[in-house]
Amino acid sequence: MRQRSASQVVAAMLPDVDPVRFGRAIRALRRRRRLRQRDLAAAAGVSKSTVGRVEQGRIDSVAFGTLVAIGRELGARAEMALSWNGEALDRLLDEAHVGLVDAVVARLRALGWEVLVEASFAIRGERGSIDVLAWHPATGSIVVVEVKSVVPDVQATISTLDRKTRLAPIVARERGWTCLRVARLLVVGDARTSRRRVASHAETWRAAFPADRRQAVAWLTSPVGPAPAALLFVTPAHGMGRNRGAGGRHRVRVARPRSAAA
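-> structure tokens emitted (262 positions)
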């Protein structure tokens, strides 16, 4: 039986990892800890050049154990993906997330919702934060919004949003908000790649988020009746999130994801 190369072993262990994103994640976490490449290398017991290759996304030539060691020194875990502090790593890497959150907040406030951004919780051992949590005082309605600038992993995203929706009434009551119904929205940055990825698993997404754009917007405008679950593509206005106050004007376009046959 022919022995596999180190790069083949890494590829088998990390089949879904984007090597460029993995490298960017390592670099971002290293800089966040104010470490030089040589500092990280010494702590992980590897060479500085190895850390450099990893940060450049050249992980196919690096042993899996080395990736684990480097991640461990940064408080991260190298498995099928690089994890760190819940979903915070995506926010650390992704400035576009800020613009999308800004757009969602502006739209909800214009419709009369009170809004919290990064509503953190620690409930019976479950910790995390909700990207956008909004309350409609007149109807006691709550909406939980998960914001992603790119299409995330299907099952992980659905599971995470389900958990936050389940905990949202408790989070709301802790803030003095009455809660009669909870809607859940997954907001994704509108791009051709994102639409293609959604279309590739269209039935799964539709099962988890059956409401379409029209239904979601109608309910947000007048939140009575059953709370919807919807996936919305959103395009924030150019420059959103930079030097813009919360009360500034924003142009937001939302669209319903197309089916796989479209």
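Residues 183 and 228 are 5 Å apart (CA to CA).
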